[in-house]
Each structure stands twice: as C-alpha cells, then as structure tokens.
Amino acid sequence: MRQVYLDYSATTPVKDEVLQEMIPYFTTKFGNPSSLYTVGQESKNAINLARERVAALIGAEPREIFFTSSGTEADNWAVIETAMSKRNKGKHVITTSIEHHALLHSAEHLKKEGFEVTYLGVDKEGFVDPAELERAIRPDTTLISIMYANNEIGTVEPVAEIAKIAKAHGIVFHTDAVQALGNVHIDVKALGADLMSISAHKIYGPKGIGALYIRKGLALPAHIYGGAQENNKRAGTENLTGIVGFGKAAELARENLTSHIEKITGLRNYFIERVLEKIEDVHVNGSLESRLPGNANITFKYIEGEALLLLLDMKGVAVSTGSACSSASLTPSHVLEAIGVPVEQIHGSVRFTVGDFTSKEDLDYTVDVLTGAVEKLRSISSVSKDSGW
Ligand SMILES: *Cc1c(COP(=O)(O)O)cnc(C)c1O
After folding, report:
1. Tens digits of per-residue pLDDT, 347-384?
2. Distance between CA atoms of 102 and 104, rounded to whole angstroms?
3. Are 81 and 99 in contact (CB under 8 A)?
4. For residue 181, how far is its CA from the centre of ligand 1 (angstroms)?
5. Which of the residues are catalytic?
6. Phi and psi torsions of 272, nearest 5°
7. Spatial distance between the Cα atoms of 20 and 51, rounded to a whole number of angstroms
8. Within its chain, how far is the Cα of 38 from the centroid?
9. What are phi and psi of 217, to 5 degrees?
10. CA 266, 268, 274, 277 torsion: positive or negative?
11. Can you tell me the mean pLDDT for 38-48?
C-alpha cells in the first residue's frame, strides 16, 4: 500500500544530507565543546558553523542565535523571562488567541504570577488586526508576542506592521516563527523583531533542538543556570548532534527556499483544487493569499474529522485534526474556534500539510481515498444536511 505523509507541519523526516552530517558527532567527533583539546575544539567549531548557518537562514548574526531544546523552550524563555525581568515596569503582555500551546501555556503561567494577558482575536482568515493591537497597548505593556505563521491554518500574519507598532511604543516584540522557518523568506533585521523562536524538526532537521534569536543589545536573562554554554544564557552541555543537524537543515533550507516555496505551493494548490472539484460541501480555512506554502486546512461538512483521519490512516495516508498536541483530546481547535468555524464544523476539519517528499501521485491517491472516505462517512452519518448542520 502507498504510504502518504501529509503532516509536515507536525514534523518532517530528517533529510539524508542532514543525517550524514550528524553521524560523526555521535561516534568519532564526540568531544565536549567546552574541552580545550582537539576533539573538543572540533565540536566547538561544528557548533560555530551551525550557528552561522541557522543565523543566515533568518538574516541574523551568529551571536544572536541561542540553541535550546525545542521551539517550545524558546517560546517559554522569550515570554516568561521578558515579562519577569520587566515586572517592575509593568505586568501586561499582549498575544493572540491562535498561538501554539507553547506560547499560550507560557502566558497562562504568567497569569498565575499576577500578570495580565490580552489575547487579540483574529478575523475569519486568521489575521490579527494591527489597529486592534495598537488599541490594546497600555503604559504597563512590556511584551507583544505574535506568531509569524499559524501552524493549523497556515495564515502568515502581518508581522512587519506589528513589529513597527511594538517598536514605536518601546515594547519588546517576540514572534514564534517555527512554522515560517524554511517556508517564508525571513529577514529578522528588516522585520525588526527582538526575539524569534525557531525549531529544527519542522525543516527536515532532528527533533529536540531549537533556537531563540535574541537581538544583540536586548537584555534577556538566562533561563538555565550552570556552565557558560550559549554565552552564559543557556547552560548544559550542548546537543552537539542536534545542533549540527539543525545547521545542515538550515543551510539546505536557505539554498532551496525559493524553489521549495514554488514547488510546495503548486502541490498544495493542486490538492485543494482537486478536493474542491471532487467533494461537495467543503471549505478551506485560513487565508488563500497570505498562507504557508504547504498548508491545506479543510472542513468537510457533516462528518467527524477523527473518523476521516482513521479511514485515511487505514489507506496509508497520515493527516491531522486540530493540532498534533491537542489531537488526543476532543476539545475543538482553539484556532478554528477563533476564526469563527462553527463547533460541529471544527470537528469535521482536517489539516493536510505538503512537504519536500510529497509527489503529485501521492496527492492523486489521497484525493481518491478521501473522496471514498468522505462519501462513506456521509452515508452513515446521522448528522446530515437535513438535520440543519
Ligand atoms: C511545532 C511548533 C512549536 C513547538 O516546537 P517544538 O520544537 O516541537 O517544541 C511551537 N510553535 C509552533 C508554531 C509550532 O508549529
């Protein structure tokens, strides 16, 4: 049976070039980067090279890149340490209702510490309104954290405008760019963000390695204490193989960015067109213009997304409902809720994300399987058009 992976926003396979670059650092080049002898210094040099490569992908300087264990850790660090370090100035932070849980739960933690959090809403395509942001700013606002692109519906936010507003008010601006990385041309300097979270495993690198961009001159406190690693800001012996893999994945992403965007957008559009052509009563969620290349989030009316997911899985097609992190629960996606999709339709929504190893044949196969599965579920569904859904 054909195996079709259409969940590249959840994670990606490690590319072979990335793996090959990592392997020696498990075995022969295993030295501790803090050791002064040759094998240690080789590790240190490998980390420096990786830092340059990751920096280049977002237009940063290498010394502005701080490796972390994940995008989640980068989000926690940026949000919690910024807010805590500025709490004498004010205890108000602004974010959005469609952030990843790494951000939302960091904000929840701040609330327990006595902070106030404003969650900006979004329009039906998932866009934050910069004018609304402007109105939400108060004298005690110390941080604005708004994602670059949404992981569920793929909407790319007007981050440049948002950064400008933050800057004009002297407020720190953080953006979670985990989904945007390798899928959008990012220039963190032109953008003017102070902090940016990124992760390797969404760009064909290994899991368990991410980074936080900290603009030089921004005084963000350390958040793990110990040795002098990561310029005294994030202690602990480095994840050497992970960092090397992240570096190689970043280099490949940068080299291929333009062609990647073009190819993936083409495949994604092809898929959406075929679905719209073959299946009735479907709706594409999110913006069609300002959207991540690989994302197709589609509502199939009158069915349960989970049931569809399982039928697709039986045919070898991997997709997700809601986001991977909440898919074990039946709470409806907070993102689809925020863009105003009715609850019963949220339950019929599926995210397909296309990536570098997806072929047109994979998509043709998926559309065939999907058409059959939707038909089957609708024919046995108790909720039909007639019941008013
Ligand atoms: C995947 C993801 C994260 C978490 O990154 P990890 O490295 O998996 O912890 C954070 N934010 C967004 C938008 C993501 O898609």
Report:
1. 999 999 999 999 999 999 999 999 999 999 999 876 55
2. 6
3. no
4. 11
5. 325
6. -60, -45
7. 18
8. 37
9. 100, -20
10. negative
11. 97
CA dist 319 and 303 (Å) reads: 16
How confident is the model at residue 381, as a pLDDT?
A: 72
pLDDT tens across 249-303, in order? 999 999 999 999 999 999 999 999 999 999 999 999 999 999 999 999 999 999 9
Q: Domains for the chain: give ranges and CATH numbers.
A: 4-12+257-387 (3.90.1150.10), 16-253 (3.40.640.10)
Burial, 232: exposed, middle or buried (Cβ in 10 Å; 0-12, 13-18, 19+)? exposed
- Ligand 1 binding pocket (C-beta < 6 A) is 70-72, 75, 100, 102, 147, 151, 176, 178-179, 199, 201-202, 210
Mutate to test the pocket of ligand 1, among 68, 175, 179 (most ligand atoms within 8 A of CB): 179
Residue closest by Cα to atom 5 of ligand 1: 71
- 116-150: string of b/e by CB count within 10 Å (b at 16+)? ebbbbebeeebbbebeebeeebeeebbbbbbbbbb
| Ligand 1 center to 6 CA (angstroms) | 17
Question: Which token pair is 82?
Answer: 């910024």
Closest alpha carbon to 251 in 57, 16, 23, 15:
57
Distance from the alpha carbon of residue 100 to the mean position of ligand 1, in angstroms: 7
Token pair for 173: 């601006």
